[in-house]
Amino acid sequence: MGATHHNNRLFITVPRRRPGVPATLNVIDLSKVSPGDRSPSLKAYPTYPINELQPQYAPDLRRLVSVYRTTVDVCERLWFVDTGMLEYPDNRRQLQRPQIWIIDLERDQLVQRYTIPEAIVREGVGMASITVDVELTDCEGAFAYIPDLVANAIHVYSLRDNDMWSFNHSSFAYDRNRATFNVAGQRFAWDDGVFSIAIGQNDTVAGSKLVYYHPMVSTTEFGTFANVLQNKRIAQSGYYDGLFETLGERGPNTQSTMHHYDPRTGVLFYAEVNRNSIGCWNTNQIFDAGNHAVVHLDNRELIYPTDLTSDSDGTLWVLTNNLPVWIYSRLNESEYNFRLWRQDPAVAIRGTQCDNAV
């Protein structure tokens, strides 16, 4: 599941991993939520027919099959990947080609839909997140970075060129020594590769933005530059010597799904699934485990932070969903199993190693 906030609306995704999901992309209009309503209803977005599966699972590229996470860019457009895959345990199938969707949120209208060719990826299931790199002065010059946790690849889409290319590197693969998880009493081993990409500050020496990334099954952070990812020729050459580098170790049990860079504080925030916490690192400090901190940890209610995003006001939003319990056991339907959290980044880091005032 994923959650993105924009202009008093929450966009919530529900991937189709079991039958009975009426809509994979949903919205909550917070202006219409009654005070005290802790569990508002989801409404299919942009419409229910676009979310409805065809009879006999017939392919239809005008409809959504399964979406994991979304993001909103500075040009007020909602971006996401429809994997095109049903992940039902007894009926796993690729219904149609995966696609990148871009929706204008001012008009709630589709502005672009790009079908990802088979030469890029055979199945869409590994594309669980998307990060958009764009300047307000050049909305058509946007690039989307899409980590692929199955293919161990980073796919790059150019909006202006309507083209896509891929990078493959050893740092995109999972760490076999960090594959064991223990979450909410569930012990399991996963092999998810590169999972999250965060766009950092501009490096004046390199003349480009820093780009942070990591596999989920890893406690190591890696880095590259935007001008590397945006260069199709480099991708096709396969020669990446020195272009993808290890930054360092974050510390024990810091396996992370999503992470996000906050430009106001200069802090990188992590959704740490193996210890039910939100972690941080101040990019003004040396990258090592001692300079990482926990801004929030809760073994009862912050179980499995699956998404971490930021809105146009800079507020951090975190979604937790008890995923390991749902997969390996059974959810307690008398309790809240899905929670949405928010906090100002400067407040979140106050008094921690990540605080600029410390």
UniProtKB/TrEMBL annotation:
Keywords: Secreted, Signal. InterPro entries: 6-blade_b-propeller_TolB-like, MRJP/yellow-related. SUPFAM superfamilies: NHL repeat. It is found in: Secreted. Gene3D superfamilies: TolB, C-terminal domain. It comes from the Eukaryota. GO terms for cellular component: extracellular region. Belongs to the major royal jelly protein family. This is Yellow protein.
